[in-house]
């Protein structure tokens, strides 16, 4: 079990993490989801003892990552954003080197390196120089080094970034396999990746936890209120005023289309079904309806809504620079 408590990290006067807390239970695959700059790598670097927090604590099965660093670190394998691969070593040489660094016993070393290569399907390339491997294979070697030493928990920072679609599918499959024998935490800025691979998601935005939820429950957070889109023919201002008067309507927006048509978006207050009142009101005012459909909020909309400020702030910052 990993307990992250009230972590903060400031760079100069910028708070990269701001009171971040969550708990990781054994046996599940967790996703740390957030847009670029949300604080995912900072969190993982602190959880693995690479950098110290400005405040708060991380314990791994009760061992404090700073005070009991050796015992805590033995329980986690880490693939950082920039994997520390030695390009001029062969895969086997590098993994043996990692085993030495992690203090793996001589008698267990050969077996452990072989197992790590089997699990990550890098045994075929064991004698190739790392620099000559494809990006997908390099990432597999990065995962192999993380599982050497038999850690119970594996932490992977954006393991599919920069890979092509086939490599992404393969790495996701490998992560699912690892999840059968390890607790896994992976970070991503892509919601669909988390929802495909993980059991539980932590969404972070600007260094704060904005949602902790089982992936199977994510749909419950999608807004229940109805949104409809209508294609109609009639005067735009009339459409607007007619719909705005309806008591069950929350928002109305109307845009002009070709041939005197308009495209109308209406959201309901609460959970009311507004299709009937909207269509009657329009037709009673001489506005013909050509089509109507319900628009649901998607998971992607939910994620954007929860984390949008990040992106806006980043954009503003970039504009200022
Ligand atoms: P993510 O991995 O979610 O993209 P990071 O944890 O890398 O986010 O960064 C979080 C915030 O902290 C960003 O605003 C980033 O610019 C800032 N940051 C990260 N590392 C440093 C550093 N070494 N020095 C200054 N600012 C940093
Ligand atoms: Mg990162």
What can you tell me about this protein's structure?
- The chain has 321 residues and is of the alpha/beta class.
- It has 2 domains: 2-221, Rossmann fold; 227-295, 2-Layer Sandwich (Alpha-Beta Plaits).
- It has helices at residues 40-47, 69-74, 91-101, 106-119, 135-147, 165-181, 191-197, 236-244, 275-284, 299-320; strands spanning 2-11, 14-24, 29-33, 55-60, 63-64, 76-79, 153-156, 183-188, 200-205, 208-214, 227-233, 249-256, 261-268, 288-294.
- The strands form 3 sheets. Strands 6-7-8-3-9-10 form a 6-stranded mixed beta sheet, with helices on both faces. The chain has a 4-stranded antiparallel beta sheet with strand order 2-1-4-5.
- A hairpin with a 2-residue loop joins β9 and β10 (208-214).
- The chain is elongated.
- The two termini are 42 Å apart.
- Bound molecules: adenosine-5'-diphosphate (ADP) and magnesium ion.
- The site of adenosine-5'-diphosphate has 10 residues, from α1.
- Adenosine-5'-diphosphate binds next to α1.
Task: Provide tags for this entry.
alpha/beta, Rossmann fold, Alpha-Beta Plaits, 2 domains, six-stranded mixed sheet, 28% strand, binds magnesium ion
Write a compact overview of the structure shown.
The chain is of the alpha/beta class. The protein contains ten helices and 14 strands. Helices cover 36% and strands 28% of the residues.
């Amino acid at each position: 079990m990993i307990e992250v408590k009230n972590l903060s990290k400031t760079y100069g006067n910028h708070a990269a993490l701001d009171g971040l807390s969550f708990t990781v239970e054994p046996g599940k695959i967790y996703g740390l989801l957030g847009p670029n700059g949300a604080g995912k790598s900072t969190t993982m670097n602190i959880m693995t003892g690479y950098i110290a927090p400005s405040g708060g604590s991380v314990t791994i099965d009760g061992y404090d990552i700073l005070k009991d660093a050796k015992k805590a670190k033995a329980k986690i394998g880490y693939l950082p954003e920039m994997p520390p691969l030695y390009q001029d070593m062969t895969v086997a040489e590098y993994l043996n080197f990692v085993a030495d660094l992690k203090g793996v016993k001589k008698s267990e070393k050969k077996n452990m390196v072989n197992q790590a290569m089997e699990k990550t399907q890098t045994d075929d390339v064991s004698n190739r120089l790392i620099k000559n491997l494809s990006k997908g294979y390099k990432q597999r070697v990065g995962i192999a080094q993380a599982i050497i030493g038999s850690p119970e928990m594996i932490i992977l920072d954006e393991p599919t970034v920069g890979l092509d679609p086939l490599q992404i599918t393969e790495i996701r499959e490998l992560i699912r396999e690892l999840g059968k024998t390890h607790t896994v935490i992976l970070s991503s800025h892509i919601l669909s990746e988390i929802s495909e691979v993980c059991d539980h998601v932590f969404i972070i935005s600007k260094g704060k936890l904005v949602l902790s939820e089982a992936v199977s429950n994510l749909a419950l957070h999608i807004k229940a209120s109805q949104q409809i889109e209508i294609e109609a023919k009639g005067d735009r201002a009339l459409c607007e005023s007619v719909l705005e008067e309806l008591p069950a309507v929350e928002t109305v927006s109307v845009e002009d289309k070709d041939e005197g048509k308009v495209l109308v978006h209406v959201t309901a207050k609460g959970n009311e079904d507004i299709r009937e009142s909207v269509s009657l009101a329009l037709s009673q005012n001489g506005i013909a309806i050509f089509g109507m459909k319900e628009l649901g909020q998607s998971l992607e909309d939910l994620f954007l809504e929860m984390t949008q400020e990040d992106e806006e702030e980043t954009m503003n910052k970039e504009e200022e620079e």
